[in-house]
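Below is how a single chain appears once it has passed through the pipeline. First comes the sequence as given, then the structure the pipeline wrote out for it. We keep one example in the README because the format questions we get most often are answered faster by looking than by reading.
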Amino acid sequence: MEQHRLVTLRLPVSLIARIEARAHGDQIAPAEVIRRALIATLAEGETALAPNLMAARAVQEALAGAAGWLDLQHRLRQEGVVLRLRADRLALNSWPADRFILWLDDLGETLADLTLRFRAPFPGAIPRRRAQPPPEGAVARDIA
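Resulting structure:
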């Protein structure tokens, strides 16, 4: 008989919802969905899983010790990854090839959370300004 251990995982809410939906559809426990997914993934070989696991570990360790955005990027580069802002989401890319690996929010960290934590927008992010209509009575002038 194989021994079992209780394990606690920190997962994004969106992933938990997908696990619960699959469990409901298959009429099994959510824990069984996770077990099956892990067994299937590991059966394919660890080479398919290794880059994402390495990136996830690197991010979690870097986030734990980072004091700000620049410190975070420095720590990530030492691990061979960097953050890139794409369409209001942070992407984790390989460094120096700068190829997409995964979305940071798939690891449970969001741009909004980190912006609040570091008390600053992501470096290089251009703040959006809402277009404001001209004041009433304003007349357009020909500048030419």
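The mean pLDDT is 80.

See the next section for the split statistics.
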